[in-house]
Amino acid sequence: MYTIKKHAGEGSRSSFYKLNQRGKGFKTFLDREDAEYAHAIQSELSLNNLAPKVYSEVGRIRIGNILSPWGYITEVAKTITPHGNGCNCDKCDMIEDRYVEEIAELQNDIEEAGYYFCDTHTGNVGFVKRDGYNILVCIDTGRESVEEYDNERSEYSCECEQCRKYREEQYA
Length: 172
What we know:
Blueprint: E1 4-10, E2 14-19, E3 24-29, H1 32-46, E4 62-63, E5 66-67, E6 71-75, E7 78-79, H2 90-112, E8 115-117, E9 125-130, E10 133-138, E11 146-148, H3 161-170
Antiparallel strand pairs: 1-2, 2-3, 3-6, 4-5, 7-9, 8-11, 9-10
């Protein structure tokens, strides 16, 4: 049985809890549909070492005396930024600059797998160990960050500033 060790962080649409079982965590979402979407994409991307491994189906667990929101058990990735999402300190800015090429390569690999990673920043990536090496993976597979890529479409559906800029560069 899995038990919660501690709340480890949250994004705009999810929370993450480390479990007492080494290297595993429980990622929760706003609703079951969001959890199933992220679970399906993360499961597929993890087969190509582009996302952390997934260890369970979508479900709920107990957090103290209450039932958690919908989520699933996943491998814990070591995040790059020491202060979490949205930090604009000099240290985090330098880290972002340091990993810009690796994040772009991860984005390309995800696109080759049939998805578009449209919310690329250091808060949405982390490192996992594979065969003794740290590899960069996508840790946010929610619909606001990763969408299925359709070669038939001329553009992506995400309209955030970063995605629009990326499309402009690609089609310039």
